[in-house]
Specification:
Arc Repressor Mutant, subunit A, 2 domains, Rossmann fold, about 50% helix, 6 strands, single chain, 6-stranded parallel sheet, alpha/beta, about 220 residues, globular
């Protein structure tokens, strides 16, 4: 079954290049593209698709407003923000709205393909290159009791796994990186979600950001 993708970006040349890149993948199908937020909302009313690649800066509605409108009506829609903006507040705002991926336009095609597949599986994906920027405002900031307690309840291994999952790694990719079994990663992930009372990957990402787990080494 092909992954049905819609591209929203106000630059036609960029959309054309992105379409050509993604159509190389046998399991991807570009079912639509638009140059405005309003047209994207209309398109969603006319057809079903799995993934929306959405720019932030557009001439009519911003990506944030488009995401809000679509997710209110179609909560299962997977939105990946594809943007040039590396600022922390954009990432925070879009994750809070419910976007499930955030990829920089300067990223490689391989990273975008990975993001699409991760999000389609139900995971989150955050561009690894933005990790250092995410925690810049938290360096030296005292953690609240809730934040500190939450972080302290995790073992060193759970912190490692939490960080990798927040960066967009799948369970199997985290297992490979840490040289442990997939079953071990799944067990740790379950423990992390239970200890922190988290229900979704988005909540895990926000916890990782708020507690400095994405800080570059």
């Amino acid at each position: 079954m092909a992954i049905r993708i819609v591209i929203t970006d106000d630059h036609a040349v960029f959309r054309s290049g992105l379409r050509a890149l993604l159509e190389r993948e046998d399991d991807f199908e570009i079912v639509g593209e638009t140059g405005s937020g309003v047209d994207t909302i209309k398109l969603a009313e006319e057809m079903e698709f799995d993934i929306l690649l959405l720019d932030i800066s557009m001439p009519d509605l911003s990506g944030a407003r488009v995401a809000e409108a679509l997710l209110e009506k179609y909560p299962a829609l997977a939105i990946i923000i594809l943007t040039m903006h590396e600022h922390e507040h954009y990432l925070r705002e879009l994750l809070q709205i419910g976007a499930r991926g955030y990829v920089l336009k300067k990223s490689t095609g391989t990273e975008l393909v990975q993001a699409i597949r991760s999000v389609f599986r139900g995971d989150m994906y955050v561009d690894p290159s933005i990790a250092g920027l995410l925690v810049s405002s938290y360096v030296g900031k005292p953690a609240s009791k809730q934040e500190s307690g939450g972080l302290q309840c995790l073992t060193p291994r759970e912190k490692e796994i939490c960080r990798l999952l927040a960066l967009g790694f799948t369970n199997s990719e985290a297992a490979e990186k840490l040289f442990i079994s997939l079953r071990t990663v799944e067990a740790h992930r379950g423990n992390i979600m239970a200890k922190l009372d988290l229900k979704t990957r988005a909540e895990l990402v926000r916890f990782a950001i708020d507690n400095g787990l994405l800080r570059s080494d």
